[in-house]
Specification:
With 213 residues, this protein is mainly β. The protein has helices at 12-23, 77-87, and strands at 5-8, 28-32, 41-42, 45-49, 63-66, 95-96, 101-102, 107-108, 113-114, 119-120, 125-126, 131-132, 137-138, 143-144, 149-150, 155-156, 161-162, 167-168, 173-174, 179-180, 185-186, 191-192, 200-202, 209-210.
Length: 213
């Protein structure tokens, strides 16, 4: 029997994740956020408290879902939350919207989230905590590293390799076989026709630049 789910976060992405949980029949036990008072109701769900609740006796009786997307200026926040849950040995099931199309042999690691209208084709491999956002297309034999974010409507043609922590913006297109190094960022609407080294930002019409933290 599936454990009831506790969700971390309460912003816009959290609303989308909550919808996926409810559409797939998961019981949502509550949310964790430091920004709302414990005991109040958000989107019909009880606020249990902040992150310190994860160290309570009740924590191990639940599964967890991240309701945090990409936060400007805090790119590492979601991976940090994920690692905190993993270090506590807590369960993070993959979430797949019923309106997504995912081939039977796709490798889906823990914490992966695949949103409405996304298509993931045969041979694709999705690392832990990968977010495939609304309407994204991942074609055959793509490899997506842990914590990567594939933005709404992005298109990854066949055999694309995306490194850990990469951000691919909304509507970007990556042609077959390109490799995106770990931590790189691809701007919304970009067409990527050659490899991008790790840690670089790719914006159409501009030289690639190293991302400054």
């Amino acid at each position: 029997m599936s454990k009831p789910v506790v969700m971390l976060g309460h912003g816009g992405h959290a609303r989308v994740v909550l919808d996926v949980l409810q559409l797939t029949g998961r019981q949502v036990a509550g949310i964790l956020t430091p920004d709302l008072e414990a005991g109040c109701i958000w989107q019909g769900v009880s606020v249990l408290g902040g992150d310190d609740w994860l160290d309570s006796a009740a924590a191990s009786h639940h599964a967890y879902a991240l309701g945090v997307g990409l936060v400007p200026g805090r790119v590492g926040w979601r991976p940090c939350l994920f690692r905190g849950l993993r270090e506590r040995g807590l369960e993070m099931p993959a979430l797949i919207h019923p309106g997504a199309i995912v081939a039977r042999d796709v490798l889906v690691r823990e914490g992966v989230q695949i949103m409405a209208g996304a298509v993931v084709q045969p041979g694709a491999r999705l690392g832990a905590d990968v977010l495939v956002n609304t309407g994204a297309r991942i074609d055959h034999d793509c490899a997506i590293g842990a914590h990567a974010h594939i933005g709404p409507g992005a298109i990854l043609c066949g055999e694309v390799s995306v490194g850990e922590g990469v951000f691919v913006g909304a509507g970007a297109t990556l042609i077959p076989g390109v490799r995106i190094g770990a931590g790189a960022q691809v701007a919304a609407g970009a067409v990527v026709v050659r490899d991008i080294p790790p840690g670089m930002r790719h914006i159409p019409g501009r030289p690639q630049r190293l991302i400054e933290e």
